[in-house]
Amino acid sequence: MLVKTKAIVISALKYQEKSLIVKCFTESDGLKSYFVQSAYSNKKANQKIAYFQPLNLLEIEANHKNKGTLEHFKEIKLSHTYHSINTDVVKSTIVLFLSEILHHSIHEEEKNEDLFFFLQTAFLWLDTHDEVANFHLILMLEITKFFGFYPDLSQLEFDYFDLNEGVFTPFQGINGLSQHQTHLLKKALHLKFDSDQKTFAGIERQIVLKILLDYYSIHLDGFKKPKSLEVLKEVFS
Known about the structure:
This protein has helices at 45-50, 89-105, 113-128, 135-147, 179-189, 202-219, 229-235, and strands spanning 2-15, 19-26, 30-36, 57-63, 72-80, 160-162, 167-169. The protein is an alpha+beta fold.
């Protein structure tokens, strides 16, 4: 079936010498994987490969056979050209990290327009704002709403957070955060993209990030911590 849709590039893996396997989160069909033949072998190779940078926003026309095999693009163009993400070291590091988070989090070939539009809006915001130190933390928390394990805020007054149950409790259990860790998580839960970026000191931001990665590992089967994690820590150190 020929489909026209917007898509977000999740990953691009080189296949053999000249080709690519590109994973996209599409507006129309959720997660899809595409085979790009001879991506490295013609005069326009650099232009073609540039489409598939992490979290690029595309408009595509593609043949979707929906048989669990790799699909094929018919036409590709950028739906938005980023102005700062690809040139700003901090933003490009955040994008690389988040593309890995999404790669290990989204597994379903299932339409999810709400998640698609949230991600699209978030990345456009990232491209047009300068104060972005907490962006990755906020996005990781927000997308747990779509995955079904956003923390239960009904007992926010309690001092401890249980990672397994996703609830705040009056006592620290085996899988519970400390009182200090819980305090930092609560601060993160109140953040918006345009909140004061100085909410956390560098070490506090790293603590919150570790909490979120542990939380993802518990609630998502097969979740792996991103390879770019150390680079991200270096950028924010």
